[in-house]
Amino acid sequence: MESIIDFAQLAFHNILTYGVSFLVVLGILVFVHEWGHYIVARLCGVRVDTFSIGFGREIWGRTSKAGTRWKISLFPLGGYVKMFGDVNGASAGHTEQVDDGSGHAREMTAEEKEVAFFTKPVWKRSLIVFAGPAINFLFAIILLAGLYMGVGRPITPPEISAVEVGSASYNAGFQPRDMIKTIDGDKFATFDEMRREVLLTLDQELKFVVVRDGQDVEIKVTPQKITDKDRFGFVHERGYLGLIGPGNGIDMKFISAVNGVETGGDIQKAHQMVVDNIEKSAMIETMIEGRKTKLLTHIPRDINKQLFDDKDPTHNVVFLGVKPNNEFRKYNPFSAVGIAIKETYNITADTLGAIWQMVTGTRSAKELGGIIRIGAMAGDMAQQGIISLILFTALLSINLGLINLFPIPLLDGGHLVFYGIEAVNGKPVSEQVQEYAFRFGLVVLVCLMVFSNLNDILQMFVFKGGDS
């Protein structure tokens, strides 16, 4: 009986953590996206019939003075804004007939046509459609800028603390205390920026310029492609160099040897061996992510003073290479917005690059996730704290805006393609062609949803135990 109660409590906790976090984040992003369509439509003189969070049967709603029905629907995985004159919320066709109030159809009056979506010039319709994805990007910028102003941005200098022996970086000639200057000509202000660049690089040579003893040194290296699985079983492919950045330390209990001399599991012996190599280059055998490895490092005195001065084995962490930097730098509004715009651009470019890698086969399509993976990630971020959840919301907002710009019929990008053709030809694409295109788009979207969510289910429950 006790085990049943424990299971029920765990299930309830998971539902609250993962389900509620997912619905809150998705609900906010859907509202923001649809509000972008709504507000620009109103500014362009278009009447909006419906603003819905979710699809299907209405579970709550109210009608505003402007005549818009604001509602929450049964299935919360999306939303729509239905413009006056459109046959549905996807703007897949229009009609010049309206309900006369008694259940019969009548022709629109001249005044009604003036506020219909389909009568507006193509540039206004394009602006209304583009506003949804655009405000998702703007929302992400606002979130990131707010964090950089209020909390700050972690500063991790692009200096190498240690190099994993046998890794691509070790074989290429990287050394502890190298300061990374550029990668393929691009400058990197933090170690995290450099790491993200490497993570997304698969089977492609990178040209590093590092500063060593005051001199620029050029190093060419190709990251190793490795496949990881997170605790849910989801597959992630990433580039790996084997470089350890600032702020990392090694617990003495994991050190099995220093410069080839084994510790025999004796923490006090490991402590003494580390102390003996203060301000020297050292080869330390330890554990990283559950695997045994060797690190070439340089043990500094300044941040390990307690180890050296006290010789107290209770101080059981040795810091590597450079001083750990947990500083969060706060920015003024102008700088914060500039950095947030740059970060949003980088995330967008990285996402497009990863998608292209899937198209070309460089990256496995197993990484394409659906609502199950998003829910799992949202729950994890919620457990890590509000800052992590806000960062995840910003990331998801960028991806939502980007996906909606893809030129797939039914998505905003598909509508923009039709409006572009209309602008060039001087007349709209025929409704028959649009109808077939929207049907095709629906099939594509359904297939993508089925594939991505099937991916999640198989990785979580079927293939979770194996390695790829």
Question: What does this molecule look like?
Answer:
The chain is α+β, with helices and mostly antiparallel strands and 468 residues long. Among the domains are: 135 residues, no CATH class; 158 residues, Pdz3 Domain, CATH 2.30.42. It has twelve helices and 20 strands. Strands 13-6-18-17-15-16 form a six-stranded antiparallel beta sheet, with helices on one face. Strands 8-7-9-10 form a four-stranded antiparallel beta sheet. Strands 1-2 form a two-stranded antiparallel ribbon. Helix 1 packs across helix 3 and helix 3 runs antiparallel to helix 10. The longest helix has 42 residues. The two termini are 39 Å apart. 32% of the residues are buried.
The residue fraction in helices comes out at 40-55%
Mean pLDDT: 79
Shape: elongated
* CA(first)-CA(last) distance: 39 Å
Give the second-level CATH assignment, the architecture of one domain.
Roll
The CATH H-level superfamily of one domain is PDZ domain
Radius of gyration in whole Å, from Cα?
A: 28 Å
- List low-confidence stretches: 4-13, 463-468
Number of helical elements: 12
Share in β-strands: 15-25%
The CATH topology of one domain is Pdz3 Domain
Number of strands: 20
Give the CATH class of one domain: Mainly Beta
Structural class: alpha+beta
The description of the largest β-sheet is:
6 strands, antiparallel
- Read across the widest sheet, the strand sequence of neighbours is 13-6-18-17-15-16
